[in-house]
Specification:
With about 270 residues, the chain is of the alpha/beta class. It has helices at about 10-15, 20-30, 45-55, 60-70, 85-95, 100-115, 135-140, 200, 220-230, and strands at about 140-150, 170-180, 185-190, 210, 230-235, 240-250, 255-260.
């Protein structure tokens, strides 16, 4: 059987882009304040396509991204691009276009394709056992953060100065993940010096939700807010959560235990 040496296939990236609704993403960009201001050609959809191309290619800089796009110039029509993006245009767009636009696109795609995501707990029965998520699992959220080490002149460092006098800077990634989905629902980037409970102040979960956090997020004012919003949280105890006051008088000595009353899950 003869083989055709002139086979023209569709790039994998082009097939991935078919999962994106261009009209919907363009609408999201137009509805986001400042996203389409002073834009001539490089709109929100093209910006998303270019940035995804750089991520999939593991590029480390905008210069690499520009060179990579030039190397694939003959395939740009598969990506819906009709021109090469300049480095200056891309850098300006990254500064000007608000991050809320990309956050809204992520939320839209997650809501649309969540049921198709691979998961270690399939909804169908397996060997006679059901793996359908329970009601409490659907309402369980997990919050945590991690630090990415960078140079101190880029972002403020965290911790005390070592004996050498040198201290590295870093970036902290704050994340909220929904248990049964297995993907981040909220991601925020700050300097590593930012305290973990920063994100706790910004989060408003649905009524009846359960939130799992570690000791770094202990904040009595925020715990009170979560209690008022009917959000149950699970965390580790710190010594000062149980305050014991010794009250002594001239007649009798009284020991009184004052417990902070909060909506803990046991």
């Amino acid at each position: 059987m003869s083989k055709d040496s002139n086979f023209f296939g569709e790039p994998v990236y082009s097939q991935v882009l078919k999962l994106l609704d261009r009209e919907k993403i363009t609408q999201i960009s137009r509805e986001t304040p400042g996203s389409e201001a002073y834009v001539k050609r490089f709109d929100g959809y093209r910006h998303l396509v270019v940035m995804l191309f750089g991520i999939l290619k593991h590029f480390d800089s905008l210069r690499e991204l520009e060179i990579g796009m030039k190397a694939e110039a003959h395939k740009l029509r598969h990506l819906g691009m009709d021109y090469l993006v300049r480095l200056s245009t891309l850098a300006e767009a990254n500064i000007r276009r608000p991050q809320e636009y990309f956050a809204k696109v992520y939320s839209y795609l997650l809501e649309k394709y969540a049921k198709f995501l691979a998961d270690s707990r399939p909804p169908k029965s397996h060997k006679g056992q059901t793996h359908e998520p329970k009601d409490w699992e659907k309402l369980l959220y997990m919050m945590d953060s991690t630090t990415i080490t960078l140079f101190d002149n880029i972002l403020k460092g965290v911790g005390r100065h070592p004996k050498s006098g040198k201290k590295k800077g870093g970036m902290k990634v704050h994340t909220i993940m929904k248990y049964h989905v297995g993907l981040p629902m909220v991601v925020q980037l700050t300097s590593a010096a930012k305290h973990d409970h920063y994100l706790l102040k910004e989060v408003h979960l649905p009524k009846g939700s359960n939130l799992a956090i570690d000791r770094a997020y202990i904040d009595m004012a925020q715990f009170q807010r979560l209690t008022e919003e009917d959000v149950c949280y699970v965390t580790k105890m710190k010594a000062y959560l149980l305050k014991i006051e010794m009250l002594q008088t001239a007649i009798v000595g009284i020991m009184k235990e004052n417990h902070y009353q909060h909506n803990f899950c046991l």
